[in-house]
Design goal:
It is built from four helices and seven strands, in the order E-H-E-E-E-E-H-E-H-E-H. By secondary structure, the chain is an alpha/beta fold. It has one domain. Strands 2, 3, 4, 5 and 6 form a five-stranded mixed sheet that branches. A two-stranded parallel ribbon has the order 1-7. A hairpin with a 4-residue loop joins strand 2 and strand 3. The N and C termini lie far apart (about 55 Å).
């Protein structure tokens, strides 16, 4: 019996353009390599202003928390050439990421609940 379900378009999400890198990758769990390949993030270990990231293809590297780093710019501008075959990023996550928009004066700052109350 074939299913006649129509696939829903993911809802548009708006995030601020100049959000810190750690908050952004905590939310979307994706990492662009220097070749433009999109990897899925398995573990993020934050150590002060740096983090050690482990992808699903078991690559580990250290990154700095920056708003205008290469990775942050590539994620915001969606300069991606493909996805990692080993990481197997699901189609729903790619559709959700492609529906995400980054605006300068509109969208979430990706703050935690405790940070929202203080400010």
């Amino acid at each position: 019996m074939p299913s006649n379900r129509k696939s829903k378009k993911p809802a548009k999400r708006y995030y601020r353009k100049r959000v810190e890198l750690f908050r952004l990758i905590d939310k979307i769990k994706l990492w662009p390599s220097r070749k433009g390949i999109l990897h899925g993030i398995k573990i993020i270990d934050k150590i002060g202003d740096q983090a050690q990231i482990t992808t699903h293809c078991n690559k580990t590297f250290t990154v700095n928390n920056s708003k205008n780093s290469r990775a942050a710019r590539w994620l915001r501008n969606k300069w991606i050439t493909g996805t990692c075959r080993v990481c197997r990023v699901p189609d729903w996550k790619l559709a959700k990421y492609s529906a995400t928009q980054f605006k300068r004066h509109h969208g979430s700052l990706l703050l935690k609940e405790s940070e929202k109350r203080v400010k």
